[in-house]
Amino acid sequence: QVQLVESGGGLMQPGGSLRLSCRSSGSSFSIYGYYWYRQAPGKQRDLVASIAAGGTTNYADSVKGRFTISRDNTKNTVYLQMNSLKPEDTAVYYCFRTGGYWGQGTQVTVSS
Question: Which helix (H) or strand (E) holds 80?
Answer without folding.
Answer: strand 77-82
